[in-house]
Amino acid sequence: MVDQVENHKKEFGEAPILSFDVPQPTVLMGQFSDLIESNCLLCLTDQGLSLSFSPREDNIIRVVNTVRQDKKKFSYPNIKYRREDRWANAVKAILSELAKMNIKIKGYNILVSGRGAGADSWSLTASLYFGILHGISILEGLDLSKEKILEMSHNANSFAPSYQAKKRDVWILLNAKPGKVYYWSERKGTGEEIPYHGFEKQSYIVSSSLPFSVLTPEEDEFRIEAKDVVSEMESKSITLSDIRKLSEKEARSMVSRYPDRERRCLTHLVVENECCQKAKDYIEKEDLASFGKSLFSLQRSIVGNAELTSPELDWIWRRGQECDGVLGMCLIGIGIAGSFLVVVDGRAFNLYARKEEEYERIFGFRSVLRPFVPLGSPFEERQ
């Protein structure tokens, strides 16, 4: 946070009156759960955004984004969508909701900085919505409930079609507690709290340090194809509920006459749903070994069915399989953002860490290995 304050001073010539971090909404398992209205395991992690605010004498909102190396300004409350403003339309979108409520606010200088992969990912819009509202609420003394923030975020999505915040991302930013993961239900629109304390000393995140954009086209393509397959199933009176009840074997049989890619799409959705359900039970029972197996199972489907990988990710995945004591690992993130959740037994950490040292020699940049600790919401801390 010291760097954030100093960078704010350099950018705007004055110290901020408010600075805070916005954690990263992270899907541990169930990235594509929304396609069949199933469930995912969700939490907050330590990569995300840092925001700082200083007041202005006019009604101008000036935002500098060091992640995108870009800066924008506009006046409040006369906010208009401009395609060329790109990421800043997310800031405009959520502030336009305050304007609709006839809430008067000062002008502000706002610095947005990033901390790792979360700074440039699908959850960026949700993080900006939350961060901007959280900061303005504190500075202007606004009393916005969680329900109101969720409603405002939903409405803000209509402002800029290219920047959409998923309800689950905003929800976890409002509700997460330290040391907890959440079993999010797409159908219910809420999450069930699950303590993760039994696994914390044996769980790590390995970041490939790949740019978020590396896998984005492949993931977009998979999502479109999988959505088409689901729509075709529904046209044959096969409901989302029917799909959620399928086993992997049943899914393969159901689409046995389909083209190979369509078979793989449906199979992955079913495997993902099955692994997520099992993982929830294993976490609740503090069964680390079985939880690890469910991670391995899902990762095999991510690679084999969804075909979301790269040379760097393949290397990390293979090293994990080779290392005795690595109980499980799987790509995680909002978007498959190039980070793995790895669970190990007590002996394996140093051995696996040494393997990761080879990564820089081969690919020319370092992977990052750090403990996985689910964080709490800044909103909860404020209450």
Walk me through this protein's architecture.
By secondary structure, the chain is an alpha+beta fold. It folds into two domains: 2-196, Ribosomal Protein S5, domain 2; 198-371, GHMP kinase, C-terminal domain (Alpha-Beta Plaits, 2-Layer Sandwich), CATH 3.30.70.890. Helices cover 44% and strands 22% of the residues. The protein has 13 helices and eleven strands. Strands 1, 2, 3, 4, 5, 6 and 7 form a seven-stranded mixed sheet that branches. Helix 8 packs antiparallel against helix 9 and helix 9 (260-284) packs antiparallel against helix 10. The radius of gyration is 21 Å and the shape is globular. The model has no long low-confidence stretch (mean pLDDT 90).
Summarize the structure.
The chain has 13 helices and eleven strands.
Query: Main beta sheet: strand number and arrangement?
Result: 7 strands, mixed
* Rg calculated over all Cα atoms: 21 Å
Here the CATH topology of the largest domain equals Ribosomal Protein S5, domain 2
Averaged pLDDT: 90
Portion in beta strands: 15-25%
List segments where confidence is low: pLDDT < 50 over at least 5 consecutive residues: none
Number of domains: 2
The 3D shape can be described as globular
First-residue to last-residue Cα separation: 21 Å
Number of helices: 13
Known CATH architecture of the largest domain:
2-Layer Sandwich
